[in-house]
Design brief:
Blueprint lengths: L8 H8 L4 H13 L7 H12 L4 H13 L7 H13 L3 H13 L7 H13 L3 H13 L7 H12 L4 H13 L7 H11 L4 H12 L3 H26 L3
């Protein structure tokens, strides 16, 4: 998220001390991540603030992260909302996604699921997979929007096609239960199995399904996993290539 192209701290510092907002952000990010310099959250927040106050939205977003997590500053969700909002107003999808999370949970603002859905949708329309998954969850549960399993499946699929394991797991559950899509145990197994490469919850769901379905479904599901992985990898590659 908004990574600098290089992490030459000395180059950044010289420009940052002259007031260059991009360099201030890059220097702060290096301290935040411990890249090219020892991790130092106080220094990170200090340099990010200088860039954020100049209106540099990647710094605004990351300063929001610092406040949301208490990194180099006292944890303060109100300040997190403030800085996320400034970045979101400039079209930053990650800031919109994080605002959605805070509105959904009531962190720094009054809990408002309708507003959460609005922010998730802004980020989702910009292709943010995490927001797409969360928007799918809202449609699935009917929180902040009318319950609609078909819409939930649609948003889960967009995120799943970007390789997001949580969305693949959720999509697997929809195929297993026939919610928003025709029930398909092979497809459910494949999505669980693919998500299970990195997600323990998906491995658990896959194993439970495996215990309760014919061996044929498992064999076909394993084969479908390989096909599905190739399909998703092709979609990701095409997106990176701008197709």
């Amino acid at each position: 998220m908004h990574d600098p192209e290089v992490n030459n701290v000395d180059v950044y510092r010289e420009k940052a001390e002259c007031g260059d907002a991009q360099a201030q952000f890059s220097l702060g990010y290096c301290y935040l991540q411990g890249e090219g310099a020892a991790k130092d959250y106080v220094q990170a927040a200090s340099w990010l603030r200088k860039a954020a106050e100049q209106g540099y939205f990647p710094a605004q977003f990351n300063l929001g992260v610092c406040y949301a997590n208490g990194l180099g500053v006292t944890q303060d969700y109100v300040q997190a909302v403030l800085w996320y909002s400034k970045a979101a107003e400039q079209g930053d999808d990650w800031a919109s996604y994080k605002l959605g999370e805070l509105y959904f949970a009531g962190g720094g603002v009054a809990q408002d699921h309708v507003q959460a859905v609005s922010w998730y949708r802004k980020a989702s329309d910009q292709g943010n997979a995490y927001a797409q998954n969360n928007l799918g969850l809202c449609y699935w549960s009917g929180e902040g929007v009318a319950k609609d399993y078909v819409q939930a499946v649609s948003w889960y699929r967009m995120a799943a096609d970007q390789g997001l394991a949580q969305a693949q797991n959720n999509l697997g559950a929809c195929f297993e239960k026939g919610e928003g899509v025709e029930s398909d145990q092979v497809e459910a197994y494949a999505y669980y199995n693919l998500a299970g490469i990195t997600l323990e919850k998906a491995r658990y769901n896959r194993d439970i399904l495996e215990e309760n379905c014919p061996r044929e479904v498992v064999v076909r599901g394993q084969q479908r996993t390989k096909e599905l992985q190739k399909e998703i990898e092709a979609k990701i590659a095409a997106k990176k290539a701008g197709k």
